[in-house]
Write a structure and sequence with these properties.
By secondary structure, the chain is mostly helical. The protein contains three helices and no strands. The radius of gyration is 13 Å and the shape is globular.
Length: 65
């Protein structure tokens, strides 16, 4: 079984939201902005662990986001 990269999984998530959930373009843009922030914190293809995501949220909250 091949493991998919986090970036690939994120693009699949966007497609599902766009075409199956019919979210607005501004919601897609918000998702993309959040993912770019995650990549800045944890690298271009971040490993999504509970600890990494929690530290990311804590860092955002500290910055007032």
């Amino acid at each position: 079984m091949d493991l998919l990269s986090t970036s690939r999984l994120f693009h699949d998530f966007l497609d599902q939201r766009r075409y199956l959930r019919n979210v607005t373009p501004s919601t897609i843009e918000w998702y993309e902005t959040a993912f770019k922030a995650l990549q800045k914190t944890h690298g271009p293809d971040p490993q999504l662990t509970r600890a990494n995501l929690q530290s990311f949220v804590v860092a955002l909250r500290r910055r007032g986001v």
